[in-house]
Amino acid sequence: MSQFMDLNLSRPVMKALEEMGFESATSIQAQAIPVALTGRDMIGQAQTGTGKTVAFSIPMVEMVNTDEDYVQGLILTPTRELCIQVAEEIGKVGLYKRVRTLPIYGGQDINRQIKALKNRPHVIIATPGRLIDHINRRTIRLNTIKMVVLDEADEMLDMGFVEDIESILKTCPDNRQTLLFSATMKPAVKSLAQKFMKDIEHVAVKAQEVTVPLIEQVYYEVPERQKLDVLTRLLDIQNPELAIVFGRTKRRVDELMNALITRGYQADGLHGDLSQRQRDTVMRKFRDGAVDILVATDVAARGLDVSGVTHVYNFDIPQDIDSYVHRIGRTGRAGKSGIATTFVTPREVEHLHQIERITKRKITKLPLPTIAEARLGKQRIAMDQLVDAVAHNDLSGFKNLAEELLEQHDSLTLVSAALKLLTKNTSEVPVTLTAEQPLRVKGPQNRSKDRRGPARPGKQFGGGRNTAGRSGGKGPKKDARPRKKEPAFTR
Ligand SMILES: Nc1ncnc2c1ncn2[C@@H]1O[C@H](COP(=O)(O)OP(=O)(O)OP(=O)(O)O)[C@@H](O)[C@H]1O
Ligand SMILES: [Mg+2]
């Protein structure tokens, strides 16, 4: 464990880190920060949830000269939610240095952004599409940029942002510093790096495994039409603090969210067809714990850091192995443990084994949960609620009635009745979901349904070359128009 103290950081940054409650630097922070502070270009790779955001936020904040009122730093992120989150994190690191930050993302009123730009932010955090819009309108100029960070660089390339990113990097001064971070890398990133970075230092935290050991990984072989019952049984048994359930398509996410609500769970959905206002509301409710189940497409797979996510469920097996790594990485963050559960239909079992082979990690097969186990789980939840009420509620207004009841019935019967009333009885309400086709990505004719663009040798199910992915040469896709970026069948 390294101390931040050893990294030669400025006082305001040290004070901010202290306030954030960080005692020591994580491995990637200890390794990447000194390199980045020298001004060198860097590729940083470390497992999910290991603090890469702070690893680039510190050098960024240290680099900014707050005596100057122009944009000096740029951070690109693949999704809007991540853009907001990274802006908040860097805002915290830069608080005492008074670094002004501004998130710029699609779906938000552009005039509001133009107005906010008048406050002369030092660091802009942006999704590529919207940034390009601003560059074209000349409302943002990048000729004063000293440092660029690409967070989740591989994902941005996968999403078809390659042309946008190239044109953004071309607009920045040649002598800028470029940092690139992700938990997963692939050849396309290397070729981007070769084109736009100089004298690159590779900082990779040597991990035994691609996935985080603190995440327990299990799977269930379950026929498509039984998935919902199995999920609700698991939710009853496991009673997650917060859970993310990943579905393959937007339709799937909508249907699943409604099904869970029908069965009495507090769920909400996130995907690219929602308005930005809806997306913001969903994320806020999930972060506040007002909903405890977030049903989402892969739009939530990358970078999102919500504390309290104890469980991730892959209701549908992800389209590729990197997506698996990032999805399950929404739990087991910052040293906490988590459980990642994947459903595979009988025809998809081979995909699961491929994930095991490539991540070099066994995923344990478990027997399907029974109705009896789920019933017991629900009763335990009811019991917890009752015990919680005993501990945290002022019950004085109920005591007279309670005494009256105890004159007529014995306490065992009364408590049992209270438990019965508290036990959820909606978990088996029949709901039908539209069936998803099993994952098949072997032949080119199936690839048209593939979320991912370029071939990723050894990482993609089936291994063959992709012919119709998202970066199929159809030009840049703007995040201002999420529908284009997120094919209906994928997100
Ligand atoms: N030095 C530290 N000590 C304790 N917690 C930390 C430290 N640095 C970061 N964290 C916390 O760890 C969590 C994960 O950090 P972060 O989101 O940066 O991970 P990441 O490596 O970017 O993961 P991903 O690959 O999923 O994007 C955050 O809640 C962050 O506040
Ligand atoms: Mg991250």
Features:
491 residues; alpha/beta; Rossmann fold; 2 domains; 7-stranded parallel beta sheet; 13% strand; binds adenosine-5'-triphosphate; DEAD_box_RNA_helicases; helicase activity; hydrolase
Give a description of the structure:
The protein is built from 19 helices and 14 strands. By secondary structure, it is an alpha/beta fold. It folds into two domains: 206 residues, 3-Layer(aba) Sandwich (Rossmann fold); 252 residues, P-loop containing nucleotide triphosphate hydrolases (Rossmann fold), CATH 3.40.50. Helix 6 crosses helix 8. The radius of gyration is 24 Å and the shape is globular. The C terminus is likely disordered. The structure holds adenosine-5'-triphosphate and magnesium ion (MG). Keywords: ATP-binding, Helicase, Hydrolase, Nucleotide-binding.
Can you tell me the overall shape?
globular
Q: Could you state the CATH homologous superfamily of the largest domain?
A: P-loop containing nucleotide triphosphate hydrolases
Helical content, roughly? Answer: 40-55%
- Output the radius of gyration: 24 Å
In CATH, the architecture of the largest domain is 3-Layer(aba) Sandwich
Low-confidence stretches: 443-458, 463-491
Bin the strand percentage: 5-15%
Query: Into how many domains do the coordinates divide?
Result: 2
Query: What small ligands are held by the chains?
Result: adenosine-5'-triphosphate, magnesium ion
Helical/strand content category = alpha/beta
- Count the helices. How many? 19
- State mean pLDDT (0 to 100 scale): 90
